Amino acid sequence: MTGLFSLKGKVALVTGASRGLGRAMALALAANGAHVVVHGRNQAGIDITAAAIRAAGGTATPLAFDTTDSPAADAAVDRIEADLGHLDILVNNAGYGNGRTASEASNAEWDEIIDVDLNACFRLARRASAGMIRRRWGRIINISSVNAHIAREANASYCAAKAGLEGLTRALAVEWGPHGITVNAIAPGYMMTPDNRDTKLRADPQQHDRFAQRTALCRWGQADELDGAVVYLASNAAAYCTGHVLVVDGGMTVKI
Ligand SMILES: NC(=O)c1ccc[n+]([C@@H]2O[C@H](COP(=O)([O-])OP(=O)(O)OC[C@H]3O[C@@H](n4cnc5c(N)ncnc54)[C@H](OP(=O)(O)O)[C@@H]3O)[C@@H](O)[C@H]2O)c1
Hints:
Elements: E1 11-14, H1 20-31, E2 35-40, H2 43-55, E3 59-64, H3 70-84, E4 89-92, H4 107-135, E5 138-143, H5 156-176, E6 181-188, E7 191-192, H6 194-203, H7 206-214, E8 221-222, H8 227-234, E9 245-248
Parallel strand pairs: 1-2, 1-4, 2-3, 4-5, 5-6, 6-9, 7-8
Helix pairs in contact: 1-8, 3-4, 4-5
Bound molecules: NADP nicotinamide-adenine-dinucleotide phosphate.
NADP nicotinamide-adenine-dinucleotide phosphate (NAP) is lined by residues 16-22, 40-42, 45, 66-68, 93-96, 116, 143, 145, 188, 190-191, 193, 195-196.
């Protein structure tokens, strides 16, 4: 594909791309020309996403590691640079909440969420930035959440981590802007991923209508409804956009 949104010649790493939003964004970036490094911990899951990209005519490399394992994450970025020549786009998507109340969560449970949703994103961005700075071009896209802006019960560590990720987005945008790197975030609302559909909504079916009615569009998002946002922020169409949080929530955070 040519034009404003083309990612031809770019290499993108999408963390947590074995399923859910990461898988959809990996497919979208590949469909727009990027070679996508499909990441997750589970080899079978990332192999399936990589095969789907190839079946659609794109190119992909599966790469498994735990983002909270700092030496493994550093080694993965170095390997991408060595094997593929360059890493141009980092989508920090791997993350989750644990549903523990602030009163009950152990220190270890708190630390785990901050580690996955914030610390690991910082460390990957810092490692990836070295090559981006040398080449004077880079895109870092952090996947936040509406929970950085509005809180829900039993989610304090997640709300804090995602709010921290948005602060980090602004700080890195300022620090690395002079080197040609843009750093932005996407804050999704409630999206109908397989995990939400098959696990969380099955456990609490009333959540479906409750959250749908909280949005201006009166529905949940589909798993592929971040695709336009991630392609935009990765492409030259967003060359002058940095330090921004693009909220994709069906209007949940603007509705009283
Ligand atoms: N779904 C929503 O409604 C929603 C709303 C707002 C924000 N978000 C954010 O969007 C992102 C994706 O959410 P999702 O719902 O698509 O998640 P998901 O379906 O639970 O998938 C999470 C992905 O992250 C990977 N992952 C998790 N921890 C990891 C670790 N320590 N190291 C490596 N990989 C790890 C998993 O890989 P393995 O399977 O290989 O372990 C999986 O590919 C998250 O940051 C989430 O907070 C989601």
